[in-house]
Amino acid sequence: MHFRRPEPARCRRDDNELAGGGRERHAARHAHGDRRRSWRAWQNHDGAFFRSTLADDHIDVGFSGPVDKQAVVVGVLSPACTVRSFEVEGFRLLAVDANTAVLTYRARQDTMCGAFRVPSPTWVSALYVKRGGRWQNLVFQQTQAQP
């Protein structure tokens, strides 16, 4: 079963400073904004959001292993998961270059998928690439963290 992820509540000043110059700061702002919209889209079962923001070759590594973009969209559209609440903290952004950025953070969530409680807390990492002038989420991963 595939699980979506929480995203940062807001972009902090130090996150942008980690990103460096102008293009890299833009990557930071995009990554943070994408996470906020992503969480709401998952909560609202909005598959169209994920179709438009995930790279076509997207890989999502969740608790059941890797899945592709289509599996993410199908999972988001399914009513199987209910996100009751979430908290996110400790955002770090590494701008690798003008077209590549990695966002990491810690998440706590109360999410049920059927009778299965999604593991929480987790460490989250998301790799963004800029292709054709557009930022896309290429890789997303969750790792269960110590409480």
Summarize the structure in words.
There is one protein chain. With 147 residues, this protein is α+β, with helices and mostly antiparallel strands. Helices cover 31% and strands 46% of the residues. It contains four helices and seven strands, in the order αααββαβββββ. The chain has helices spanning 13-19, 22-43, 47-53, 69-77; strands at 54-62, 65-68, 81-97, 100-113, 116-117, 122-131, 134-144. Strand 6 (122-131) and strand 7 (134-144) form a beta hairpin. Helix 1 crosses helix 2 (22-43) and helix 3 (47-53) runs antiparallel to helix 4 (69-77). It is globular. The two termini are 22 Å apart. The model is unreliable at 1-19 (pLDDT under 50).
Q: Identify low-pLDDT runs.
A: 1-19
Morphology call: globular
- Element-level helix/strand string: HHHEEHEEEEE
Residue-averaged pLDDT, rounded?
82
By secondary-structure content and strand pairing, the structural class works out as alpha+beta
What radius of gyration results from the CA coordinates? 14 Å
